[in-house]
Automatic annotation (TrEMBL):
Residues 20-440 form the DUF112 domain. The keyword Chloroplast does not apply. InterPro entries: DUF112_TM (IPR002823). It holds the Pfam family TctA. Keywords: Membrane, Transmembrane, Transmembrane helix. This is Tripartite tricarboxylate transporter permease. It comes from the Bacteria. The chain crosses the membrane at residues 51-73, 111-134, 140-160, 172-193, 205-225, 260-281, 323-344, 356-378, 390-408, 415-445, 465-488.
């Protein structure tokens, strides 16, 4: 009953005219950002974050707006995946496998409607799980001290290194770049200047907004300019057919299983929607047996990744809100946004700032209902957005980023540094690096350092405090397991292949 009463108070916050308007605006803007190939939720939030900060929104209102962009982009990512065969973001890659074949055979409307319903079901199922499990995890996290948080941060970084992408070395390098950025500025304990190179603007450290805008938005602009001369894909026509009752019956268990898979994977630090959609798609393909049309327009192959990536987006909110650990690159930016507004995510957030925590959760219920209503009849508007020329799109993004950054401190240094980071981010992306680990390293680095410093202060410099109870030992053990297990599994697969080759 306590949960229901606090959720009701959250709805009171989310349904104020101001916040309701921000939810709808965030969902609409997010769907547009998700629909435009390559933009995605991270860039959408990165573009809006400085504006939300500079216009003086309340913390609850700002995070409700940005979260609306997040799950709106998860919805929108499917549009270009289905009609153009170009995923709007990494989480929508698996949607192309069966969504685009349906569009090619004249069932674009049916595919878009079914994916919208699957996304809605996945999000709402995950939100119910979020409401159930968040208070339980919060009660556990309240018992954590600095030593436990150090072990938890290390576990999150280990998860990131072993689970994100197919290039673990580049992921580790990206996280180290983020950790190095977190050390720039005046050491709060000793007053020593670290990596400032005599530049006074760096004495307070590297501004989180400048890093986010530079590495994501500016590098994305450079990629858009580059691709402007590369030509785009052919836009399939959208039929007027609607989702069929037979389709809903056929995918009901697929959506349920994919929602659970997406939520569990989303909760794990550093994984995100792309991993969830891939695992859900693979699971459903295996369960379908040999006689299936996966890859040729199977409705289960469309529903599974859509339910899973939206569920994972909700699941990634759990560690961010309860432990202060981002579950994905996008939630890392949301976590940074909360810190920017002097709100510290973690176990005390629900007791000290219940209006923000429960207002955000309630706004997600409202936003998902709005997205379903918005996406079914208005899909034609979003489809037309895909034909917007990049010659018009790039100047708008440039204007929003430059105005947003300059309005924060009024310092031209921030603009030049943002451009420098943008070029650096562009080069990293061209070399095959993901930028999400950089942001996760930047966010986790500061928290890790603060808690490590606090733990060593309590123990008078005795490092054994980091291993002095069951919780820390369990987390260290899990960290080692997460690092070692993929290597062991890789060796076992190689051994099986050699045995199969020898027997053949």
């Amino acid at each position: 009953m306590d949960v229901l009463s606090t959720l009701a108070s959250g709805f009171a916050v989310a349904l104020t005219p101001m916040n309701l308007g921000l939810v709808l605006a965030g969902c609409f803007f997010g769907t547009l950002m998700g629909a435009l190939p390559g933009i995605g939720p991270i860039n959408g939030i990165a573009i809006l974050l400085p504006l939300a900060y500079s216009i003086g929104l309340e913390p609850a209102s700002a995070i409700i707006l940005l979260a609306g962009v997040y799950y709106g982009a998860e919805y929108g990512g499917r549009i270009s995946s289905i009609l153009l065969n170009v995923p709007g973001d990494a989480g929508a890659i698996m949607t192309t496998l069966d969504g685009h074949p349906m569009a090619k055979r004249g069932e674009g409307g049916r595919a878009l409607a079914l994916s919208a319903v699957s996304s809605f079901a996945g999000s709402m199922g995950a939100l119910i799980l979020l409401v159930i499990f968040t208070p339980l995890l919060t009660r556990l996290a309240v018992t954590f001290g600095p030593a436990e948080f150090v072990a938890l941060m290390v576990f999150a970084l280990c998860c990131l290194a072993s689970m994100v992408g197919s290039r673990p070395v580049k992921t580790v390098i990206g996280a180290l770049i983020g950790l190095a950025m977190a050390t720039v500025g005046v050491d709060s304990g000793t007053g020593v200047l670290r990596f400032t190179f005599g530049i006074t603007s760096l004495f307070d450290g590297i501004d989180f907004l400048v890093v986010v805008i530079g590495m994501f938005a500016i590098s994305e602009i450079l990629l858009l300019v580059e691709h402007h001369y590369g030509g785009g894909g052919r836009l399939e026509k959208v039929s007027k057919s609607f989702v069929r009752a037979a389709d809903l019956v056929q995918v009901r268990w697929t959506v349920l299983r994919s929602t659970l898979v997406g939520f569990v994977i989303g909760v794990l630090p550093g994984t995100g929607a792309s991993v969830a959609s891939a695992v859900a798609y693979g699971t459903e393909k295996r369960l379908a047996g040999e006689h299936n049309e996966f890859g040729n327009g199977d409705v289960r192959g469309l529903a599974a990744p859509e339910a899973a990536n939206n569920s994972a987006a909700v699941g990634s909110m759990v560690p961010m809100l309860t432990l202060g650990i981002p579950g994905s690159g996008t939630t890392a930016i949301l976590l940074g946004a909360l810190l920017l507004f002097d709100v510290t995510p973690g176990p005390l957030l629900f007791s000290q700032k219940p209006d923000i925590a429960w207002g955000l959760i309630a706004s997600m219920f409202v936003g998902n209902i709005a997205l379903l209503v918005m996406n079914l009849p208005l899909v034609g508007i979003f489809v037309r957005m895909l034909s917007v020329r990049q010659a018009y799109l790039v100047p708008v993004i440039v204007m929003l980023t430059f105005v947003g950054i300059y309005s924060i401190h009024g310092a031209s240094f921030d603009l030049f540094f943002m451009i420098l980071l943008g070029v650096f981010g562009f080069l990293l992306r061209k070399l095959g690096f993901s930028l999400a680990p950089v942001i996760l390293g930047l966010v986790l680095g500061e928290v890790l350092e603060d808690n490590l410093r606090r733990a060593l202060s309590i123990s008078a410099g005795d490092w054994s405090i980091l291993f002095n109870n069951g919780v820390t030992l369990t987390l260290w053990g899990l960290s080692a397991l997460v690092l070692v297990l993929p290597l062991v599994m890789k060796r076992r697969r190689a051994l099986r292949r050699r045995q199969a080759a020898a027997e053949a």
